[in-house]
Amino acid sequence: MSDETLARYRQSIDNIDMALVCLLAERFKVTQAVGRHKAEAGLPPADPGREEAQIARLRALARDADLDPEFSEKFLRFIIEEVIRHHEQLRG
To answer: Is-contact 58 72, C-beta < 8 A?
Structure first.
């Protein structure tokens, strides 16, 4: 693999990483709004039923995209844990 080929691959990876960060930032803006709503409405920070449904949905999407469902579940669980932590902070 030439240095030029490697540089193109790395540029593609960098572009994808940038898109992932932007998508995560947008997702967390929405989940922060959800957290504020939950706090104002007196709703619990976590919704285990919703979380499990989302994990099942993401695992199916991962399989369809030829991505390891175990990896996708670990990734989503990490995000969910962070969202719940934020929601708990909003409750005070």
So the answer is: yes
- Model-level pTM? 0.84
Specify the number of domains making up the chain.
1
Average pLDDT, the chain: 95
Rounded Cα distance, 63 and 90, in Å: 35
CATH code assigned at 67: 1.20.59.10
Q: Residue 72 sits in which domain range?
A: 3-91
Tell which phi-psi region holds residue 52, choosing left (phi > 0), alpha (psi between -120 and 50) or beta: alpha
Binning pLDDT at 50, 70 and 90, where does residue 1 land? low
- Do residues 15 and 56 lie in contact, with contact meaning Cβ atoms separated by under 8 Å? no
